[in-house]
Amino acid sequence: MSFSEKVLVCDQVDAVLNNTLQKNGLAVTYEPQITPEELAKKIGDYEIVIVRSRTIITKDLVEKATKCKILARVGVGLDNIDTDAAKAKNIRVINAVEGAMNAVAELVIGLMLAMARDIPRADRELRNNNWIKKELMGTELAGKYLGIVGLGNIGKRLARLARALNMNIIGFDVVPIDPEFAKEVGLMKADLDTLLQSADYVSLHVPLLDSTKNLINAQRMASMKKTARIINTSRGGTVDEIALYEALKSGNLGGAALDVFEKEPAIGNKLISLPNFIATPHIGAQTKEAQSLAATVIAEKVIQILRGVI
């Protein structure tokens, strides 16, 4: 079965997406640098619109998408698509939650290791011809308590990787946690405040909602161990960055690593000036494998929707 629908791809994605759609008869227009103004003029001509992170589908754009059947994001979250506006117009909104699962979990492990062994400082000082071996007394991940806030696909993958490193896993989620999974990784279920008070590392895996805005705030940071470290690879805005800066600067928190920020690009963010802070530029899903998988997932979901399978 082939299709006649027109597809507009608005961001840079793996070539497997376009190739798979075209093989199934879909006419694909690939404009990875399209501006909001250009998109507003063109979006009404397409039945399927696909974005990644750069393009924001606002309510105004949804209103202009008069032919649109499917809005797709080649990624995990949907915060750059006005899902309420799309639902009101009976437009299917899909994403690729499976795509970034392993990539993000591995990044968290990397950030924890970087903090535990102060790898950024070691590298930086050696490049400046300073041999500071005696100053670099690190810690090990084995035996430490990792608190995972949000046990969806990524949180579960992280728990399995961390368990393989002999970390102890504490978990919190607003939905029931699968008991079989909990048994598999030896997960200790806890409420959020207990998790924060107990963990050596806290990793966030939650969407940005009204209920999660500044979820980790000054009060909650104050309840954590002074040696504890926070990792956020989920969404900017779930950690209060002002409170985090003060906690890190005062020594009331051991360290933090953020891959996501309230305002991106996070150029000039004052957190980056702190020695106990590590920053990466929203690279959680930025692996060849993750991008290929996410593109494949979206292509398959689009085709299945058009065939009436899902």
Explained architecture:
It is a single chain. This protein is of the alpha/beta class and 310 residues long. The chain folds into two domains: 6-99 and 288-307, Rossmann fold (3-Layer(aba) Sandwich), CATH 3.40.50.720; 101-279, NAD(P)-binding Rossmann-like Domain (Rossmann fold, 3-Layer(aba) Sandwich). It is 37% helix and 15% strand. The protein has twelve helices and twelve strands. It has helices at residues 15-23, 36-42, 59-64, 83-88, 101-116, 119-127, 153-164, 179-185, 192-198, 218-222, 241-250, 288-307; strands at residues 6-9, 27-30, 48-51, 70-73, 92-94, 145-149, 168-172, 188-189, 201-204, 229-232, 255-258, 277-279. The model has no long low-confidence stretch (mean pLDDT 96).
Distance between the termini: 16 Å
CATH architecture identity of the largest domain: 3-Layer(aba) Sandwich
Strand arrangement, major sheet:
8-7-6-9-10-11-12
Q: How many structurally independent domains?
A: 2
What would CATH call the class of the largest domain?
Alpha Beta
Q: How would a crystallographer describe the biggest sheet?
A: 7 strands, parallel
Number of strands: 12
The poorly predicted ranges are none
Radius of gyration: 21 Å
Given the helix and strand composition, which structural class is it?
Answer: alpha/beta
Helix and strand sequence:
EHEHEHEHEHHEHEHEHEHEHEEH
% residues in beta strands: 5-15%
Could you give a quick summary of the protein structure above?
The chain has 310 residues and is an alpha/beta fold. It folds into 2 domains: 6-99 and 288-307, NAD(P)-binding Rossmann-like Domain (Rossmann fold, 3-Layer(aba) Sandwich), CATH 3.40.50; 101-279, NAD(P)-binding Rossmann-like Domain (Rossmann fold), CATH 3.40.50.720.
